[in-house]
Amino acid sequence: GPSREEVLALRQRYVNPGVLTYYREPLMIVEGAMQYLYDETGKRYLDAFAGIVTVSVGHCHPHVAAAVKEQAGTLQHATTIYLHPTLPRFAEKLASKMPTGPNGTPLDRTYFTNSGSEANELAVLMAREATGNQHVIGLRNGYHGGTPNTMGLTAHGTWKFPSNAPGGIAHTHPGYCYRCPYDLAYPSCEMKCAKDVANVIAYETPGQVACFIGEPIQGVGGAVLPPKEFFGIVYDAVRAAGGLCVADEVQGGFGRTGEHYWSHQHFGVQPDLVVMAKGIGNGAPLAAVTTTEATAATMTKRIHFNTYGGNPVSMASGLATLEVIDAEGIQENARVVGGRLKEGLLELRDKHDLIGDVRGLGLMLGVELVTDRVAKTPAKQEAADLMELAKERGLILGKGGLHGNTMRIKPPMCISKDDADFLLATVDECLGIIEE
Ligand code: PMP
């Protein structure tokens, strides 16, 4: 194949320079096999970022790869204006994995799109249509996509363009205890941050809202995991203002948090709409919004169309992925190996002053680095150095968070205990070098 230099030169010449790459010297990947990636020299990396939390059951998992190949060779494309068998089969399988909506109402009506951004746009559209209200409440520090409305919902300046400012969107606190905006501590805070959503509704909306949308565990925002009561308080306030509740499960769904198939179940809440992408298709461009029969019916008032939404190859990939999650005990593995990782990271926190906070559930973990534990000064440079040093040692980590100082650990859920130990030993060694 072409050399890394040739690929880099072609990309620099013909690709928009705004397309993001990681690392000081962008890494070239030519092959993937389960939890590992290989560069052009054959060097192996443990992929602790799973693409971007996309590859849920493993790179090129044989069952998923075979299903995609078979579908691509039989019927690669048909839009939803025709019937084809794979779409409803996958929709039925997905419905069998859905949680219940409010008061036990089934969530079993799905609309397929290609990306999380499109799915979130659609969820907001459905909520607005269903309620007749316009205003949407999001969480500070959240990420919901890069299209106009979702860029507005995304609540961090890094991801916004000043030329794009959609209206009718307000943000409330995310329950980020490590950086509590009131300098309080849980539980004596009595969930002041969650209760503040009533003020946001009162002061920043007409008092009636279309919906609330939130990631039960923030992904890009750095594994922010609020206390268990958080979403119950927020959902109640939003419903009292006539709004629906949307759970963005793009990163936290499909067993990743270990204890539950859906991350919102950790909080004991029942959303009206669930948005999915990334892990649902193991890397295929596939996303979905699933809701109740009544809310779904509001989409028949006008025509909404998505050319590639529900295409046979993505459907086949999604169906095979969900089958693997069931057949291979993937959720249980996320719980067990994720638990071991978190324990190990907490031990590293005792050893390394750079680690300010370790948080998350299952295989959705965050390690926030600080240069001063009392002031909680974000260790932005150190986080970037850790990424580089880990890469040299064959470990790919993710990075994000409010200040770009949170390491994001979300490997394909097939990761083994030995992989977890390698990850911990590598992070330990790299932090030691940075602290020298
Ligand atoms: N929601 C969440 C929680 C995400 O993490 C992302 C992507 N990082 C999106 C939505 C947007 O998905 P996409 O990039 O597929 O449009």
From TrEMBL:
Alphabetized GO MF terms: alanine-glyoxylate transaminase activity; pyridoxal phosphate binding
Enzyme Commission number(s) of this protein: 2.6.1.44
InterPro entries: Aminotrans_3, Aminotrans_3_PPA_site, PyrdxlP-dep_Trfase, PyrdxlP-dep_Trfase_major, PyrdxlP-dep_Trfase_small
Cofactor(s) essential for the protein: pyridoxal 5'-phosphate
Family: Belongs to the class-III pyridoxal-phosphate-dependent aminotransferase family.
Record note on quaternary structure: Homotetramer.
Protein name per Swiss-Prot or TrEMBL: alanine--glyoxylate transaminase
Annotated source species: Phycisphaera mikurensis (strain NBRC 102666 / KCTC 22515 / FYK2301M01)
Lineage: Bacteria, Pseudomonadati, Planctomycetota, Phycisphaerae, Phycisphaerales
